[in-house]
Amino acid sequence: MPEDVLSQSEIDALLSAISTGEMSADDFKRDEDAKKVKIYDFKRALRFSKDQVRSLTRIYENFARLLTTYFSAQLRTYVNITVATADQIPYEEYVRSVPNMTILNVIEVPPLEGRMIMEIHPSIAYAMIDRVLGGKGTSINKIENLTEIETRLMTNLFEHTLEHLQEAWSSIAEIDPILSEMEVNPQFLQVATPNETVVVISMNASVGETSGMINICIPHVLLEPIIPKLSAHYWMETNTKVRKPEEVAILQEKIKEAQIELAVELGLTTITIDDFLSLSVGDVIELNSRIDDPLTIKVGKKPKFIGQPGKRNKKMAVQIIDNIEEGEGSNEW
Question: Where does the Flagellar motor switch protein FliN-like C-terminal domain lie (predicted)?
Fold first, then answer.
């Protein structure tokens, strides 16, 4: 039962207290005003609306699906990546939540300013590397001792995720992501000021029997130029976009150049399989139509016109004499 709904006995007790003078109506008003006061932490300022965070979540849900397909093909094992949460917190708080030794891919996204971070849990990163090297996908956490070969393999693996990031972002901005560096210690990274608000998209990732988190940290400075595009109103306008007249004209011209199959049906007949197997060059097959009957002209496999046979410039030809209205004849494609 909601807290603001009182039982009948509680209502009777309150009415009795008011009638006896133990409480007054002003006391209720003061309690109600007190409830409206909320504590606001200026260090944890919310600079994105829930609507904008939901739009970012949709983008990274698409990115998670693309990553699932990409890693499944590259690692040849079961991979599943899904968005778990999306939240906005100060950058300082995000850095404190990151383990001291983990995989941190720093991504630049020109023409937008700023950099975002793709944080991969060590267990997931090493399971991926183990699969690339032909193993079963076993995870061993030894981030502090990365060899040059392991570093190069990880860099190559995650560089190819950037084209999928570009595709996921294409609905709101044309970006050209670049993997600028890879770190293992968050203290060495400074992509935003400590108090700047960042959006953190957390994704659950499974590689074979190993599971972990992939977190995306996006600073406010990077999203600031495209914040209007993160509103639901913009997404609705994008989905109902009307094509420009010049685009329609180009599309119509391209359709006119499309090649289609046109066939003229002279007639039909039915024969036995034995007769069919004994056919040879020079045999004559009797059709079920007369020589003066009109011919059916098909576009693809759909009857569209009625015609009559003839010759033009000493070549066999057919003349269209009527249209077949929708519903007449066969409609099979």
Answer: 253-324
- pTM flag (> 0.70): no
Given a cut of 70, the residues of the chain with pLDDT beneath it are 1-9, 12, 17-47, 137, 139-145, 232-243, 326-333
Look up the CATH number of domain 256-323. Answer: 2.30.330.10
Q: Are 116 and 191 in contact, with CB atoms under 8 Å apart?
A: yes
Q: Which CATH number fits domain 44-239: 3.20.20.70, 3.40.50.2020, 3.40.1550.10, 3.20.20.370?
A: 3.40.1550.10
Identify the pLDDT of residue 122. 84
CA 192 to CA 169: how far, in whole Å? 21
- The span from the CA of 129 to the CA of 258, in Å, is 47
What are the domain boundaries of the chain?
Answer: 8-38, 44-239, 256-323
CB-based contacts of 162, cutoff 8 Å, min separation 6: 107, 177, 178, 179
Structural contact between residues 65 and 108, judged by C-beta atoms closer than 8 angstroms: no
Q: What is the pLDDT of residue 64?
A: 92
pLDDT of residue 33: 54
